[in-house]
Known about the structure:
Elements: E1 10-20, E2 26-27, E3 35-41, E4 46-53, E5 66-75, E6 79-87, E7 96-104, E8 107-111, E9 115-117, E10 120-132
Antiparallel strand pairs: 1-2, 1-3, 1-10, 3-4, 4-5, 5-6, 6-7, 7-8, 8-10, 9-10
Amino acid sequence: MTAIDPRIVGTWRTKSTIGRDDAGQVLPPPYGPLAMGLVVFQSDGRMMAVLCDGRAALPGGEPRQFMSYAGNYSFDGTTLSTRVDASSDASRIGGDQVRHVRFENGLMVLAPPRRLYAGVMQHQELAWERIGA
């Protein structure tokens, strides 16, 4: 078994999210203005993540954004790849969730590939702060 980079191991809480379109314009934040989430990376290569819009009430008719998944991961210091074996979105099961990772100012920033979100192709970044080992 390959050793896991210890920088990623631990429990992390969502600090901020941002989405931009292809022209670089800032879009409404993924998971709303009060994104709430946890991600846990274990030293044995197992992880789980959950994210949602953390507002107590949403404007009329607006759906609550929610996503969770879990699986075995690998991390080479810049690329995180998780083979999903459980998810709130069944289409993710059996696939790989790949994220570019960087560490800055005490935060871990995860950037998924460009994708359709809320009807718009987006480049997203989710910043996480460590809350536990």
